[in-house]
Amino acid sequence: MSSEIIQMKNETMAPKKLNNFLTANVIACCIAGTSAIALGQAVNPAQNNPAQNNPGPALPALPATPSIDTVPMIVSLQPVTIKESYATDFRSEHQQVSSGWLMVIRGDSRILAPRALAEPLLLASGTGADGSVWIESVEWFNHGFISGYRVCFIPSTAQEKSGADRTTQGLRVWFGSPKLPESVDAKALQSELKEADRAGIVAGIAVKVEGSAPKVIANREELVTTANALIARWAPDESQDGASTVPAAPANK
């Protein structure tokens, strides 16, 4: 092959070699950059993207709510009277609460999984002595993701002094749309009630209420202490001291 032909062939291939070289360098830079970002996130997780309302790899996907498929089972219900009322943080109006029901529910782990932002509201409704329907945003003290049990409190935010006019007749407890509890007001609760009716949420089997009289509690702090004792029993993995302070739950709980 003549030198002229060899030279022409080399000149023809030169741009291809240059393009291949540049492409390889771009790919290498991208890989290096991606690796550097991954390493930086592993070293300093705080620099990761802000958490969104999507489950991580260890959390189940959140099902649609409200739905009859995610209605929790009421395990225990105890009427409570609180001597020193407090303002609930589970309503935007922060009404005063002086009575209600301590409750333990067993729920779907997909719902109970802790999430960074809005979670399905835990709601309760029932019938008053006069036949009217009441609805409340239920306070809760633990997630119950591992145990399946969540300890809650249904506050009575009605204007009556003792809340005695409210009954557990027709009690419904369900998970509503994902929201921040502190953003919920009376209008939002009425909307949730309509959605529950539309989804076919109905009252469950009559729930046995613990005790013939309300449990008298001094204040919010004692309410939390009482709730912690229930957590120690039903969800010991979330107990503050890691040990139960009350008798063990039945084996067939």
Task: Explain the overall architecture.
The chain has helices at residues 3-43, 109-112, 186-199, 220-234; strands spanning 73-87, 96-106, 119-127, 133-137, 139-140, 149-155, 172-179, 215-217. Residues 1-56 and 242-253 have low confidence and may be disordered. 28% of the residues are buried. The termini are far apart. A hairpin with an 8-residue loop joins strand 5 and strand 6 (149-155). Helices cover 29% and strands 24% of the residues. The strands form two sheets. It has a five-stranded mixed beta sheet with strand order 5-6-2-1-8, with helices on one face. A three-stranded antiparallel beta sheet has the order 4-3-7, with helices on one face.
Main sheet overview:
5 strands, mixed
Oligomer: single chain
Radius of gyration: 29 Å
Classify the beta-strand content into a percent band: 15-25%
What gross morphology would you assign? globular
Number of strands: 8
| SSE run | HEEHEEEEEHEH
How much helical structure, as a percent, in the residues? 25-40%
Major sheet: arrangement of strands: 5-6-2-1-8
| Count of helical stretches | 4
Give the overall pLDDT as a whole number.
76
Short description:
The chain has 4 helices and 8 strands. The longest helix has 41 residues, at 3-43. The chain has helices spanning 3-43, 109-112, 186-199, 220-234, and strands at residues 73-87, 96-106, 119-127, 133-137, 139-140, 149-155, 172-179, 215-217.
